[in-house]
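User: Sequence recovery, please. Input:
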């Protein structure tokens, strides 16, 4: 089963959902704000993609963080920040079995959903 993780009012998530629906891809939507995110799942994403690919440093949430939270990041500290503030996760995250992608790309979605 394909799961799309994101926030329903995010423009990029909306694009991804439209793409999935236009291509008749069955998926489950997991709202990070409403449904939360467990540490084990985030750790698996960090292991697969790297924390740098998951941490959205262009987000409003990032800009609002204290400077002390932004310095000397590593996989552990970045994961703690993302768990505390799910809007720091680059959206959407598409999970298809063991394959995970962050962000939206029609080419990547074509590959991920054709399995």
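Assistant: Recovered sequence (115 residues):
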């Amino acid at each position: 089963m394909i799961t799309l993780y994101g926030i329903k009012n995010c423009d990029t998530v909306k694009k991804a959902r439209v793409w999935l629906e236009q291509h008749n891809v069955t998926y489950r939507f997991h709202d990070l704000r409403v449904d939360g995110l467990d540490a084990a799942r985030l750790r698996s994403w960090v292991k697969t993609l790297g924390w740098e690919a998951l941490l959205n440093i262009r987000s409003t949430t990032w800009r609002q963080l204290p400077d002390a939270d932004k310095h000397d990041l590593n996989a552990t500290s970045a994961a703690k920040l993302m768990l505390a503030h799910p809007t720091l996760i680059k959206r959407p995250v598409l999970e298809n079995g063991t394959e995970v992608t962050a962000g939206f790309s029609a080419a990547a979605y074509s590959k991920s959903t054709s399995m």
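The CA atoms of residues 32 and 62 lie 16 Å apart.
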